[in-house]
């Protein structure tokens, strides 16, 4: 029977995710030579060629992709086994490391932690603010147990490494300066603001969301100012420097600006939670997911 080495299979998966031996070694806190040696040993154990030279890099062979398809099922089953064992040993207790994007921390994570302290005081949550790409790298590598992100920036549902749970829809509202002529308009549409100066990020996901929403409403927004933090964006709106699209999770706590719900052309983003496939049955992780769902449903 073929010998399957879980440690070496994880190294192969990390190489597939990171793209190069050097980056895989960094993610695994190993040396590149140690990574190469482990994969050479794995190829010998399995009796197939796993890597082929491609210039200065290596690429995974078809055999390597076949091995990884089966390995993902093994990893998921091991996560389930760990979850059941953790539940048996710890009962209603445990630590969950959670990575979340910035606006989700005060809006979802903090209330969920408060809910857990009441319902399951033995469950401890350690929170880490992360960008979407970083949170999934950490989740895959075991650096966090649960990741919160926007659906648009998460791996697809077909990614066999993770189980995704949709938590909520987060509509986008428009923030207007206090004296804006449309602050009291009865039927405000995004297209009504096509002539206004806009404030949004210079690059990255939020820049794409803001531009895409405006373009879907029929105009290209004039970017008057660029900022990535909501405190800075809302301060500029309050000063009359422009208008901005703001997630409901942020606009519900905004002050000093006129926040209007769009009657039409209202864009919406979706917030999801993800865990390593199989880990959702761990009692502590399941309690955190339940608390997040409860908070999200109440918004």
Automatic annotation (TrEMBL):
Gene3D superfamilies, alphabetized: Periplasmic binding protein-like II, Winged helix-like DNA-binding domain superfamily/Winged helix DNA-binding domain
InterPro entries named in the record: ArsR-like_HTH (IPR011991), LysR_HTH_N (IPR000847), LysR_subst-bd (IPR005119), WH-like_DNA-bd_sf (IPR036388), WH_DNA-bd_sf (IPR036390)
This protein's record includes keyword Electron transport: no
Key words of the record: DNA-binding, Transcription, Transcription regulation
Residue stretches in coiled coil: none
Cytoplasm is among the record's keywords: no
Pfam families found in the cross-reference section: HTH_1 (PF00126), LysR_substrate (PF03466)
Residues in HTH lysR-type domain copies: 4-61
CDD domains membership: HTH_ARSR, PBP2_LTTR_like_6
Family: Belongs to the LysR transcriptional regulatory family.
The protein's name: LysR family transcriptional regulator
